[in-house]
Amino acid sequence: MDLDFDIVDLDPVDHPEEGDTAPDFTRPLVNDEFWEDESLASVCADSDRVVLVFHAMDGAFPATYIWNEIRDRAWHEQATVVGVSISTPYEHKQLLEEREIEGDYRLFSDPANGVAQQYSIDMDLDGMAGVEEPRPSVFVLDSDRTIEYAWVAQEWPDFPDYDEVEAHL
């Protein structure tokens, strides 16, 4: 498959770093059966370690690549893994099914991109006036939401160093 796109350098951002407390938020959290409003704080309180993955809208090739890699590496066996994107709960349910990750992973729905704005990782989509999404990012959190690892894309498209993330699990 030949993908034709340009690499775009992204402006620097002042995102949360290691040692910071990750901003809390409440959004619909989608699993394989239903969705309901849940806070990041409650997800963290129920886990020793949480991997918070900000990704492109469902159906975009970066989201597909990221979730295929996370699935293939079975991160859910080492931590609670949740995603965040601008996609709706209906689109999230479809992504969970298509990537064959239902039951192991859950996705927060944030159509207005407010969570990415809280984390200062929001970006405009090239050529789409008034449409933005989070830049690809990964935060590893402890049960108190302390950030143990942070990676935020510096260009688009960009993907995390999966081995480096795993070293923090």
Descriptors for this entry?
Tpx_Peroxidase_subfamily; about 170 residues; 7-stranded mixed sheet; 11 strands; alpha+beta; Glutaredoxin; two-stranded antiparallel sheet
Q: How far is the first residue's CA from the last residue's CA?
A: 32 Å
- Return the structural class: alpha+beta
Number of domains: 1
CATH topology: Glutaredoxin
> Which consecutive residue ranges, at least 5 long each, have pLDDT under 50?
none
Strand content: 25-35%
The helix/strand order is EEEHEHEHEHEEEEEH
Characterization of this structure:
It is a single chain. By secondary structure, the chain is of the alpha+beta class. The chain has a single domain, classed as 3-Layer(aba) Sandwich (Glutaredoxin), CATH 3.40.30. Helices cover 24% and strands 28% of the residues. It has helices spanning 40-45, 61-73, 89-98, 114-118, 162-167; strands at 8-9, 26-30, 35-39, 49-54, 80-85, 106-109, 122-124, 132-134, 137-142, 147-152, 155-156. The strands form 3 sheets. The chain has a 7-stranded mixed β-sheet with strand order 3-2-6-5-4-9-10. A two-stranded antiparallel ribbon has the order 1-11. Strands 7-8 form a two-stranded antiparallel ribbon. A hairpin with a 4-residue loop joins strand 2 and strand 3 (35-39). The relative contact order is 0.24. The model has no long low-confidence stretch (mean pLDDT 91). Keywords: Redox-active center.
